[in-house]
Amino acid sequence: MTISADVGDKDLPPDEVARKDLDQKNIDQQDLARDHAFEIPAVRRVFPSLIILFGALFALVPYWGDDVGLRESFLLAAVYITLASNLNVMIGYTGYINFGNIVFFGLGGYVCVDLVTRWHWPLVLAALMAGVAVSLLALVFGAGILRLRGAFFALATIGVNEAVRQFVANFEPWGGATGIYLSFDAYEPLGGPMPALWLVYFLLVGVMVLSLLLSYAIKTSKFGLGLLAIGQNEDAAGVLGVRTPRLKALAYSASAFFPAIAGGLYFFKSGIIEPNGAFDLTLSIEAIVMTMLGGYGTVTGPLLGAFLYEELRGYLLTSPTISQLQLVIAGALLLAMVLFAPGGLVGFVHQRWPRSRGILQ
Amino acid sequence: MNPPATSALLEVSALSKHFGGLRAVADLTFTVADGEILALIGPNGAGKSTVFNLINGVYPPDSGRIIFAGADITGKPTYEVAHHGIARAHQIVQPLAGLSVLDNCLVGACYGRDNLSMAAGRKVVREVAELVGLADRLGMPAGQLTTAGKKRLELARALCGRPRLLLLDEVLAGLNLSEILYMVETIIRIRDRGVAILMVEHVMTAIMTLSDRIVVLNVGRKLAEGPPQAIANDPAVVEAYLGDPKLMAMAEAARP
Predict the structure, then answer these.
(1) Which of B43, B72, B41, B37 has its CA nearest to residue B55?
(2) Is residue A30 less than 8 Å (CB to CB) from chain B?
(3) Above 90 in pLDDT, residue A260?
(4) Which of B56, B122, B126 sits opposite A239 (nearest CB)?
(5) Cβ neighbours of B139 in A, within 8 Å
(6) Do B107 and A243 touch (CB under 8 A)?
(7) Is the separation of the CB atoms in B122 and B200 below 8 Å?
(8) Measured between alpha carbons, how far is residue A316 from residues A73, A309, B108 in Å?
(9) I need a surface site. Which of A77, A112, A135, A186 has the fewest CB within 10 A?
């Protein structure tokens, strides 16, 4: 580094000149590496646009083909992607495994369906309200259970889900164990059941796109950096000044918003909501499988994982020989992923081709 | 010898901490002045790391007060202590292994004393990385750094928070001689920027070169306090440590 510049090259023996050139080259490469670390790859700037483009295609392909079967399959995929993507904020970024994540979906469903049937709110407003209410509730729950770490946190999240399920099953205004049924009248403001189904589908795709954008925004923000730091080493993050309790609670609350809205839309579409369907722990665990399958900690991982899982599930359910084995296969899949590709599909690609890290978020 | 109390940046008074029946720190009082390097030494188990954990907010003291820059930070959680302007480099390196060196430093910069934005944080990181000698490794995952690299990362991350006081917990341990020399140079450069340093260290030659004052701890109590030369020749210290090879090395280093 400290070669005096005033020494002319001609005074040096040839090998010295060569060495000096080499040193200069090394310095240049170092400078390049330095600047490179600060650069934001061009792909990253267009990434949000790619997500929106994907969403538009996702919404329009069944519509153009007027394919109701494909719509139903994609609708479920949109719900799964929403669940997995928001779960990833907790699992992938913050490092907290939320086994009871489905509680947001179920509660959102109840709030929305209740607002629509009893108070005659417009669907979109009711769904938004469900998102806000469940997020606020998550902030309260989170402040309590986020004091726990590791397996204890995971158990507590299951506890929250089961407690809420029991509460709702005994809560008469919400129909107790029988739940709430929507009459056909509920679909009238949207132009009848058929247009309502399409509308709900588009709204769910919108929620899915917003979830992915939120995930991307969090990951590239200062808030996300704090979450990633917590996920890596919570104590060290605290020493560096990360206000860990607040950030964790905010992440938990943020990860509740879109699942709650999705729950509202989904159960509105179903026409019925009852405790066992709304707070189904199986779906909670499946959301974890999807996140791990695609690659936790990345934006595209949960998207890929959830989509593949939905397609696989659709295939397994319609195949008469193995329709009962859907969960067995999900479990085996999770086991295989954890053992052989703990980073999921995207993690595997990153590991295999390190250069893809900058491109595939 | 002792700076007047008014100019003290950190004032630790009558600090005590017990773990069950073990008295880790007992009635400890000392100050660190602005821009000073104070070394905390003592045999293993003397309570040095406990003192750091108390100042740092890892756990609260049983009794006593810690005043930093006029604010009472006793028993405050680690992140609040960091926001007041105290940063720490750990003895056992704690890199955020899955994140890049740049992101590790950014956490320090963005969540440190100044609560910077990502863009402003990047500028600080660039500058600190040059100072500490990590500028060519910013894109690397922190887990892939060598031991010396990880030690430097601890230092860099802490510095990125723009602290007024830096707690250095055995940053020289496990380094070879040339790495130690590099680190000592770096520490002097940090001090020259006006950052006060409180360090726990076992490498005595480094302590003799670096520190303005030394506080000697023994079973949680202060045994002696003073400039390096005086400490090396203090009969109480010599008596307590008789035969301790570390002290011999220290006395050796103090000899002209």
Answers:
(1) B72
(2) yes
(3) yes
(4) B56
(5) 33, 36-37
(6) no
(7) no
(8) 13, 10, 48
(9) A186
**A10–chain B Cβ distance below 8 A for any pair:** no
Sheet holding B71-72, edge to edge: B22-33, B8-19, B63-68, B71-72
List, as one string, the DSSP characters of B36-53: -EEEEE-STTSSHHHHHH
**CB < 8 Å to B95, chain A:** 233, 236
Beta carbons of A242 and B56 less than 8 Å apart: no
Count of pairs with CB atoms under 8 A, one residue in A, one in B: 100
ipTM of this complex prediction, to 2 decimal places: 0.89
Q: What is the DSSP track for B59-125?
A: S--SEEEEEETTEE-TT--HHHHHHHTEEEE-SS----TTSBHHHHHHHHHHHSTT---HHHHHHHH
Q: How far is CA B129 from the centre of its chain?
A: 19
Is the pLDDT confidence value at A151 over 80?
A: yes
B135 and A34 in contact by Cβ < 8 A?
yes
The CA distance from B146 to A344, in Å, is: 27
Collapse the DSSP code of A223 into the 3-class scheme (helix H, G, I; strand E, B; otherwise coil) and give the result. helix
- Please list the pLDDT of chain B residue by residue as tens digits (256 residues): 444 445 699 999 999 999 988 889 999 999 999 999 999 998 878 889 999 999 999 999 999 999 999 999 999 999 999 999 999 999 888 999 999 999 999 999 999 999 999 999 999 999 999 999 999 999 999 999 999 999 999 999 999 999 999 999 999 988 899 999 999 999 999 999 999 999 998 888 888 889 999 999 988 899 999 999 888 888 777 776 655 656 666 666 665 5
Which among A33, A228, A241 has CB closest to B99?
A228
| Nearest-angstrom CA–CA distance, A209 and A212 | 5
Q: Which residues in B lie closer than 8 A to residue A238 (C-beta atoms)?
A: 77-79, 82
Whether residues A240 and B102 touch (CB distance < 8 A) is answered with no
- The per-residue pLDDT for A7 is 38
For A206, other C-beta atoms within 10 Å of its C-beta total: 15
Residue with tokens 């430097």: B152
- The residue ranking higher by pLDDT, A66 or A24, is A66
Judged by CB atoms closer than 8 Å, whether chains meet at B111 and A235 is answered as no
Chain B residues near residue A44 by CB distance under 8 angstroms: none
| Cβ atoms within 10 Å, residue A82 | 29
Q: Is B221 on the interface with A (CB under 8 A)?
A: no
Looking up tokens 């990880």, which residue turns up? B150
pLDDT in tens, A205-255: 999 999 999 999 999 999 999 999 999 999 999 999 999 999 999 999 999
pLDDT at A36: 58
Closest residue, chain B, to A229 (C-alpha): B96
Q: Tens of pLDDT along A158-184?
A: 999 999 999 999 999 999 999 999 988
Residue type, A88: N
**Which string of b and e fits B53-71 if b means at least 16 CB within 10 Å?**
bbbbbbeebeebebbbeee
Q: How far apart are CA B175 and CA B182, in angstroms?
A: 10
The reported pLDDT for the residue numbered A347 is 87
